[in-house]
Amino acid sequence: MTNWIEIKDFNTPELGLYASLSEVQLLRYYEPKPGLFIAESPKVIQRAVNAGYEPISFLVEHKDLEGAAKEILAQFPETPVYTAEYDVLIKLTGFALTRGMLCAMKRRQLPSVEEICQNACRVAVLENVVNPTNIGAIFRSAAALHMDAVLLTGGCCDPLYRRAARVSMGTVFQIPWTYFDKKISWPETGMDSLKKMGFKSVAMALRDDSVSIDDPALLAEEKLAIILGTEGDGLSGQTIADCDYTVKIPMSHDVDSLNVAAASAVAFWELGKKNLNHI
User: In this protein, which residues make up the domain named tRNA/rRNA methyltransferase SpoU type (predicted)?
Assistant: First the structure.
């Protein structure tokens, strides 16, 4: 096909998106307008395309041109497809490609918290979760286990970072999400905005003064914001103090806590049952 371009020179400017630019540089590529991100694997790329994200170019291993990537590439016959053998692509990108395909895509303007929450009754709120693997896993659980949206504080890892989106299996393109506005302080103003929208807040925290995760009062709440904290330290003391409920997942065998991604799956399943009943 005419849009297939064999990689012969690593210094080709268009390859900089894959070879030399960091995640942050891609994010700021068109600053102050939304920048770019790199999606990895056919499933993730297709879900991004289905959600309306626009490809800039593709980077594809030779064998996948007529394989896993073929159906996606056929949708964009004019978009450049840079291609080479697997070993060449590893040298170019510096990491092993998942199923031999990357795609540079344009970001979109994020909606406001109010827009995201307009028709939501169960939302996940992530406070300073910085690990991209955890972000991706939390998004996958949120999408699968009946959350309506995900809200992130400014200290969180970007859900569109390559690893986060890949671990999520592309669910970052399926469930609505956004950041609290940088002008809004968290937890003070952010928590107030949730309350004004009618949400009761649930702090997932290792505290003895907590209610059971299966407490009927929680399930009965019309709107819940389920708040999870950063790896290691968990939620800030002020966030916990400002919440309507504090919930602790019961543990056995002297295990003191779960990874935040594992805890999110338990919390979303139990606290999202109201949404399950509406399906």
Answer: 124-268
Residues of the chain with CATH 3.40.1280.10: 113-276
Query: What does the angle CA 135 – CA 90 – CA 44 come to, to the nearest 5 degrees?
Result: 35
Joined together, the tokens standing for residue 116 give 């995201």
Local confidence band at 92 (pLDDT 50, 70, 90 cut-offs): confident
Measured between alpha carbons, how far is residue 169 from residues 22, 69, 75, 202, 214 in Å?
A: 21, 16, 20, 27, 29
- Give the mean model confidence (pLDDT) for residues 43-62: 95
Give the CATH architecture of domain 4-106: 2-Layer Sandwich (3.30)
DSSP 230-249: BTTTBS-HHHHHHSSEEE--
Average pLDDT in the 204-219 region? 88
Lowest mean pLDDT among 4-13, 75-84, 94-103: 94-103
Query: What pLDDT shows up at residue 261?
Result: 94
| Contact (CB, 8 A) for 186 and 180 | yes
> What residue ranges of the chain are covered by domains with CATH 3.30.1330.30?
4-106
Structure tokens given for 175: 């469930």
Contact 113, 39 (CB under 8 A): no
Residues 6+ apart with CB under 8 A from 230: 127, 128, 129, 130, 155, 260
Fold of 113-276: Alpha/beta knot (3.40.1280)
Q: Is 100 within 8 Å of 89 (Cβ atoms)?
A: yes
Q: Which of 89-93, 111-115, 138-142 has the lowest mean pLDDT?
A: 89-93
Which residues lie below 8 Å from residue 189, measured CB to CB, with a gap of 6+? none
User: Given a cut of 70, is residue 278 above it in pLDDT?
Assistant: no
pLDDT at res. 276: 65
Verdict on whether the full-model pTM lies above 0.85: yes
